[in-house]
Design goal:
The structure holds 2 protein chains of 2 kinds. Chain A is of the alpha+beta class. Helix content of chain A is 36%, strand content 15%. Chain A is built from 8 helices and 6 strands; from the N terminus they run H-H-H-E-E-E-H-E-E-E-H-H-H-H. The N and C termini of chain A lie far apart (44 Å). In chain B, the strands form 3 sheets. A 5-stranded antiparallel β-sheet of chain B has the order 4-5-8-6-7. A 4-stranded antiparallel β-sheet of chain B has the order 9-10-11-12. Classes of the chains: A alpha+beta, B alpha+beta. At the A-B interface, helix 2, strand 1, strand 5, helix 6 and helix 7 of A face strand 1, helix 1, helix 2, strand 3 and helix 6 of B. The complex binds flavin-adenine dinucleotide, iron/sulfur cluster (SF4) and FE2/S2 (inorganic) cluster (2 copies). The site of flavin-adenine dinucleotide (FAD) has 28 residues of chain B, from strand 2, helix 6, helix 7 and strand 8.
Amino acid sequence: MSEEEQNTPAAAGPARRSVLKAGGATAAVAVAAGPAAAGGAGGPTALPRAVADITLRVNGAEHPLSVEARVTLLDALRERLGLTGAKKGCDRGECGACTVLVDGRRVKSCTTLAVMQEGREVTTVEGLARGDELHPVQEAFVRRDAFQCGFCTPGQIVSAVACVQEGHGGSRDEIREWMSGNLCRCGCYPNIVDAVRDAAEAEEARR
Amino acid sequence: MRRFDYARTSRAGEAVDLVAGEPTGAFVAGGTDLLNLMKDGAEAPDLVVDINDLPLSDVEVVGEAARERLRIGALARLADVAAHPRVSRELPVLTEALLATASPQVRNMATVGGNLMQRTRCWYFRDPDFACNKRAPGSGCPAQEGQNRWHAILGGSDHCIAVHPSDLAVALRALDATVHTLGPGGRRAIAIGDFHREPGAAPERETALRHGELITAVEVPLPRRGTRSGYLKVRDRATFEFAVVSAAAVLRMDGRTVRDIALAFGGIATRPWRSAAAEDALRGRRLTDDTVAAAGRALVAGARPRTHNAFKVELVQRALHEVLGALGDDR
Ligand SMILES: Cc1cc2nc3c(=O)[nH]c(=O)nc-3n(C[C@H](O)[C@H](O)[C@H](O)COP(=O)(O)OP(=O)(O)OC[C@H]3O[C@@H](n4cnc5c(N)ncnc54)[C@H](O)[C@@H]3O)c2cc1C
Ligand code: SF4
Ligand code: FES
Ligand code: FES
């Protein structure tokens, strides 16, 4: 995606309706496109369109948004909602810098569309702390000095929160395998593993 | 990414009609391959139909006692299939192949149907600045004489030597899975061996699916008691990487002789590769260094290596030796 495309305000584009070529498909949509479908992507059927009005639920708050279908969840979070914690490293699912939780599960927000998240609950790194009180995983990263430049860190932390919750923090080897979706160009892996292990131990003690 | 229309439905028939009615229409499930292809410009659908609301995520056991099958919904996420208790207990080859796939985040997103339909990682295919018969039929295949370390030694043609990248599909081939679909013409069941195609003269046709045909489920017969299975994946780094070569084995012994065996391979071929010749070389025999070496030779007998991938001929034989060594031990 080019810079120009990313910065185009999505709502400015005309709401283009698809011209469905096959008669059968048109009929299927027409029949199903009752009042429920007219609302938004969350209805039983959403009509084909290039711009959609959706509600993104992020860190407990609802954000009504008009977005082009091609906008990724990552771009919507960063460019539209100003949540710049999730980073764009590779934009191809390979580095993990964009990791967020969707319905409690860690995903790479660069390889899913914003319009696909209607009705789901997104948690970004900004949503982890309670006021001034850091999330235990954030605390552990600070205590273990588990970063250098910090670019990968929000993705590492969100991924680590899920890793611990899943019960995959049992040993250093297990952590290395289950944190493998997050790359660190600064090579802070030993300290990241220490931080995740600390958080997992604290979690085990609490259970 | 080019602009496209987006639709979402909770009815499978409607999803099929929508995609079938648009020549460049595509389903999206996890989006982990489709979005990359669209960003790279290797695919440019005008309509994307979101199928995540279809009720196709369940993993369940179906069929009567002696002939039980595992029915995996097309939208089941790789992470959930790998963690299913019946899968990890009775189908280790499947769990091992899935846990060796991509990263935890990708496995939370990626679906079984999307995994079977993912496109090759051939770098020429993914970069529209290059010619590629698969992406632009008739334009040529730069991999034949170019950088072909990742490419196939089996099942290729002068038109294409791209490797099918799925780990799951290799395990499913060894397990004799069946792919269930719903298309514009109705429902059908396709044996996994007939699902992926060799490129021949038409590398743009990769599977038996027609345009608009939706995978609804994959069924795997649950193996009889005493069956052992495993998956070995050889990568350029320890984890989170596609296979250089991989081997899936499903084995049933009768004392010290092989009663039945299924062997499938990844990383070496244009489609998930099953080798009847290697299986024949072992069925009814003991698993010794000699018999396994003979099976390995049978596997690569028709191999046609290129400039940078000749090492796979040896490597895949060693992978076979390794995976059988781990399973054949009397435990
Ligand atoms: C960084 C990275 C690393 C990876 N490593 C591996 C690896 O080691 N091993 C491996 O096997 N894979 C690997 N993959 C590939 C990954 O497994 C696939 O991208 C994923 O399984 C595709 O599933 P999806 O649901 O995201 O498909 P989507 O991206 O949504 O769709 C992919 C294709 O399948 C079609 N499709 C989807 N569902 C259906 C259906 N039900 N019926 C018909 N067509 C359908 C779509 O139209 C599209 O053409 C990797 C991917 C990434 C991004
Ligand atoms: S190997 Fe196949 S996919 Fe790769 S460049 Fe040649 S034709 Fe294209
Ligand atoms: S930016 Fe999403 S994985 Fe790299
Ligand atoms: S701290 Fe710099 S990339 Fe990880």
